[in-house]
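Retry 2 of 3 after timeout on previous attempt. Resubmitting structure tokens to design endpoint.
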């Protein structure tokens, strides 16, 4: 007990000696500092200052070994701390931390120096140095800190481009690392085994000149903008749409609607769909696949759909309100418009949080189509489907009798040139009125819907 207490006293008294020898600790061996004569004289001087008489040299030798071991532990801990902190030299702060961990006071002589005064040392020894404290301008101290205004709006914007910008310039990552290994991006949704057979069948059934590039339309949408991995991923996704069976196409679209790695490809898919619709507006089968592909992208929960609401809305409106999407092989284009109406419902559902008035805006646009005499009845068919899908059919109901009168006038003035479209339109209106009358709790609105059904039944073609 006496030895341990005396060691504590020695460690305090030795702090001044450590201060003097501190700049040389990195170049002088610790054994040289704790030499026998040096330690013995120090212990005797400390004992004399405390009024303690050491009777025999054995006691001094015992205290010498115990004190040396104790101080060596402190220096080793401080040295380990300086090494882990990558310090240039062992400093007083490292020893202070080691002393503090043992509940001891810091080194004497360092606390008396103000921390805001620079302490460069101009001495002959180059190893002796001091720490210059950072100066803080008075103007920064006088100014009150500005509290940032809290941002309560959550931004759900994702990154959309990878390894490049939309300027036709290659990114630096390609040129700086030309030898990196290109790993294909794995899909998060497994493809059924039938896809490999289906892919080979599609390649055999494609009626394209083998000398031409079969994927030119796909590569134009992504070249020099996406990385090589994403371009392959883009092309493989487009190939899934070229299925020659209904079941295979359904499986591919289900996979696309659940894929979670397609966010950076979304703007290029939109570009691809827009370009194909521009060229193949009268291709019934192609338009049907494109609008279903659009619907699958909108349904994908990993996509940031609100960021691309406007281009997606143009694609949906094109399929929903086009003048005529039929051809000689497929005279009825109602199926395309039904898929477009379902896509419109999903788009409104995904974007309603970011655009609270999107339903009203879409309803106003569709109503203008209905009451525009220059539009075709096929477009009216799509407008009615859209209004019904967004849930605004009840708002249209008070004006429906005027609309039916206008349809009757159009039929008479056009010499029955749109009989097929008019019959499909009125059958759609009749089914919507039946559904509304069945679900509506208000008796007056239900009776009004029944009267409109009776008027439709009196139409003759």
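Retry 2 succeeded. Sequence:
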């Amino acid at each position: 007990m006496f030895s341990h207490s005396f060691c504590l006293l020695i460690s305090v008294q030795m702090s001044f000696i450590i201060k003097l020898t501190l700049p040389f600790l990195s170049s002088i061996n610790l054994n040289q500092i704790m030499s026998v004569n040096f330690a013995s004289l120090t212990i005797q001087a400390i004992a004399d200052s405390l009024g303690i008489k050491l009777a025999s040299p054995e006691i001094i030798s015992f205290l010498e070994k115990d004190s040396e071991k104790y101080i060596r532990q402190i220096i080793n801990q401080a040295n380990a701390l300086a090494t882990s902190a990558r310090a240039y030299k062992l400093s007083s702060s490292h020893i202070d931390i080691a002393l503090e961990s043992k509940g001891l006071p810091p080194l004497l002589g360092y606390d008396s120096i103000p921390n805001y005064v620079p302490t460069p040392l101009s001495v002959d020894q180059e190893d002796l140095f001091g720490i210059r404290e950072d100066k803080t301008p008075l103007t920064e101290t006088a100014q009150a800190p500005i509290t940032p205004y809290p941002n309560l709006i959550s931004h759900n914007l994702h990154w959309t481009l990878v390894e490049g910008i939309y300027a036709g310039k290659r990114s630096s990552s390609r040129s700086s690392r030309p030898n990196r290994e290109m790993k294909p991006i794995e899909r998060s949704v497994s493809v059924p085994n039938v896809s490999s057979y289906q892919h080979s069948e599609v390649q055999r059934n494609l009626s394209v000149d083998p000398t031409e590039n079969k994927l030119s339309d796909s590569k134009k949408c992504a070249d020099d903008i996406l990385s090589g991995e994403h371009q392959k991923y883009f092309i493989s996704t487009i190939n899934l749409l070229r299925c020659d069976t209904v079941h295979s196409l359904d499986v591919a679209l289900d996979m696309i609607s659940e894929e979670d790695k397609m966010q950076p490809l979304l703007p290029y898919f939109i570009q691809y769909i827009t370009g194909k619709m521009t060229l193949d507006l009268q291709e019934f089968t192609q338009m049907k696949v494109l609008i279903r592909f659009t619907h699958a992208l909108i349904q994908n929960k990993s996509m940031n759909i609100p960021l691309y609401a406007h281009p997606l809305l143009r694609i949906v409106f094109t399929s929903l309100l086009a003048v005529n999407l039929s051809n000689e092989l497929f005279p009825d284009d109602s199926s395309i418009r039904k898929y477009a109406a379902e896509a419109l419902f999903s788009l409104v559902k995904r974007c309603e949080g970011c655009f609270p008035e999107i339903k009203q805006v879409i309803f106003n646009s569709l109503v203008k189509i209905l009451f525009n005499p220059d539009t075709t009845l096929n477009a009216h068919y799509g407008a009615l489907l859209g209004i019904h899908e967004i849930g605004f059919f009840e708002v249209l109901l008070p004006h429906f009798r005027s609309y039916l009168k206008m349809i009757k006038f159009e039929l008479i003035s056009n010499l029955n040139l749109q009989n097929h479209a008019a019959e499909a339109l009125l059958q759609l209106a009749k089914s919507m009125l039946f559904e509304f009358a069945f679900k509506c709790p208000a008796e007056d609105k239900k009776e009004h819907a029944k009267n409109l059904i009776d008027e439709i039944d009196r139409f003759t073609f």
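Attempt log closed. The mean pLDDT is 72.
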